[in-house]
Amino acid sequence: MNADQQSAFEAAAGVGLDTLALTLASISAVLYLLWLAWTALTQYRAWNDKRATFFDMTWLVIRATILVLLLGFFIRP
After folding, report:
1. Using CA atoms, how far apart are residues 19 and 12, in angstroms rounded to an integer?
2. Residue 67 CB coordination number (10 Å)
3. Residue 68: its pLDDT value, please?
4. Beta carbons of 33 and 1 less than 8 angstroms apart
5. How far apart are the C-alpha atoms of 57 and 41, rounded to whole Å?
6. What is the pTM of this model?
7. pLDDT digits over 43-76, tens only?
8. What is d(CA 23, CA 16) in angstroms, rounded to the nearest whole number?
9. Phi, psi (5° rounding) for residue 21?
10. How would DSSP label each residue in the chain?
11. Alpha-carbon distance 40 to 52, whole Å?
């Protein structure tokens, strides 16, 4: 965006473009970290109830963690 477009956006939105990008990145980070916690807790409960093996639980949590790391790398302000 050029300077005129940025000033028009800030006047209409009431916040700067950098602030909005940081807010959206923060909201998405909280959401996918909550998803990771939910996934880990669900897998732990399945392992505790003997519905999944320890390997299954560990592998799924590792894959979810890798996905969260990749999302954190690509979704940044």
Report:
1. 14
2. 14
3. 95
4. no
5. 10
6. 0.81
7. 999 999 999 999 999 999 999 999 999 999 998 8
8. 11
9. -65, -40
10. --HHHHHHHHHHHSS-HHHHHHHHHHHHHHHHHHHHHHHHHHHHHHHHTTSS-HHHHHHHHHHHHHHHHHHHHHS--
11. 13
